[in-house]
Amino acid sequence: MTSNPHHIVVNNLTRAFDGRKVLDGVSFKVRRGETLVILGGSGCGKSTLLRHIIGSLKPDAGLIQLMGKEITKMPDYEFSEIRKKFGMLFQGSALLNSITVGENVALPLQEHTNLSPDIIDIMVKMKTSMVGLTGFEHLMPSQISGGMKKRVALARAIAMDPEILFCDEPTAGLDPVMTAVVDVLIKDLCKKLGMTAVVVTHDMASVYRIADQIVMLHKGKVVFEGTPDQIRASTDPIVKQFIHGDADGPISFKQSGEDYLKSILGDEKTA
Amino acid sequence: MLLLGEALAILTVGTLRRKGPSAKHVVREMHMIGVASLGIVCLVVFFVGLVIAMQTSYELLKMGTEMYVGRVVGLTVLRELGPLIATIVLGGRCGAAIAAEIGTMKVNEEVEALRIMGIDPVRFLVAPRILAFTTMAPVLAVIADFVGVFGGFLVAVYSLNLTPSQYLDTMINGLVVKDFLSGIFKSAVFGLLVGSIACHFGYQTEGGAEAVGRSTTLSVVTSIIAIIVADAVMTGLFVYIL
């Protein structure tokens, strides 16, 4: 397994909801220790892709390998062992609101290990200091700001020293400074702990800060795969429009699934 | 139903395989449920005891049999109203709270987060609560029995001028162990119902704050109906068959 340089392999992943293809033959590979950013506009299928990789959705076709193991047909009890080796930072932080910040970080350790409470306490302090939040362990999640919640969620995600870190829009809803802080933290932690990371985002500033590799999705297909330098130099009109944030271009703001004429004239008249 | 099955499987098979809910969580929930409803259960059942004693003494006085008021209060409270009122209050107080809590967690994607962290939400959230309800309901019912009997005692002593021993003697002579045990058994079943219903409606919450409110209301209404229907069925069993 260690001889395999690819920590995550996604091959020809396809998934349709109600006949509409959300993921259409998506393939990419992530090397161990690398940070991959999945980029794309709203509704391009990037969150759906992430949900498939973390096993909460099953694909119609295609394969996903995490740490050398094929997971799409893996039974639940076997997958739960894989789950312990990855951490996930959720878009809305998803901290448990009924317990304190420290207990949130301690939760994976309490549930998955037999460590004594003293050791867990020390580990919680280590993890919270890694995200720069020493001394906040006793507060409830409702008493801290959105940016702090993100960092607590990050501390929880790395509590088990995972091999892979998944982040779903880690900087959504944060101010520019906090965005930079969270980005730098993710990058630093990945380097220090040797984690492979997959980050879903649509924020180009974040992309340049953290990405080693970029996969850009558009309408469920991979339209770009390469490094930040390559994406800057790309001449693809879809990629160019996205990274420059232009309103005009091949990416349409209309989300209608139907043909325009058909939708205003009705089916019979166009037939 | 599926959720209840899963939770029961975790509570039985899971505990045997050391994968059951953590004792710490169960104790914490038992503490929350018991302490949260104890005061209000006592208050309500105390007045129920008073009312039963006053209502029956009105009729018993006409027949000159007011010395039997203890027996009437004892039978009604122990067999029926102690467990019934205690668990209805439990459903309204804690069932609603649990449905709202789990519903909010569902809406905030906390439940999804637990699952992705590899923590089974049924084992972590649902099983300890159902177990806590099932064990705390009989405890509350026993306390309710005493408080209800005490309510009746006050009426007997201060309104009907019976001596304390007259009240208690007729009560104890008129009761058999089965009266007490059937009430306790019923309360455990009611507790199981309230806990499962609250967790079920909490767990199936989808949407936003409005959905949480709906789940909470549904949980309380369904709990009360389920308790009373189950009461009728079990009372039928105890009276006619067992």
Write the layout of secondary structure elements.
The complex is a heterodimer of chains A (271) and B (242).
Chain A: E1 6-17, E2 20-31, E3 35-39, H1 46-53, E4 61-66, E5 69-70, H2 76-83, E6 86-89, H3 101-112, H4 117-130, H5 146-157, E7 164-168, H6 176-193, E8 196-201, H7 204-210, E9 213-218, E10 221-226, H8 228-233, H9 237-244, H10 260-265, H11 267-270
Helix pairs in contact in A: 3-4, 3-5, 4-5, 5-6, 6-7
Chain B: H1 2-16, H2 23-63, H3 69-107, H4 110-116, H5 121-158, H6 164-174, H7 177-203, H8 209-241
Helix pairs in contact in B: 1-5, 2-3, 2-5, 3-5, 3-6, 3-7, 3-8, 5-7, 7-8
Task: Describe the structure using short key phrases.
heterodimer, A: 271 residues, alpha/beta, Rossmann fold, six-stranded mixed β-sheet, four-stranded antiparallel β-sheet, B: 242 residues, mainly alpha, 8 helices, 87% helix
Give an overview in words.
The complex is a heterodimer of chains A (271) and B (242). Chain A is built from 11 helices and 10 strands. Chain A is an alpha/beta fold and 271 residues long. Chain A has one domain (30-57, 81-251): Rossmann fold (3-Layer(aba) Sandwich). The longest helix of chain A has 18 residues, at 176-193. Chain B has 242 residues and is an all-alpha fold. Chain B has one domain (23-232). Chain B is built from 8 helices and no strands. In chain B, helix 3 packs antiparallel against helix 8 (209-241). Chain B is elongated and about 70 Å long. In chain B, 48% of the residues are buried. The model of chain B has no long low-confidence stretch (mean pLDDT 89). At the A-B interface, helix 3 of A face helix 3 and helix 4 of B.
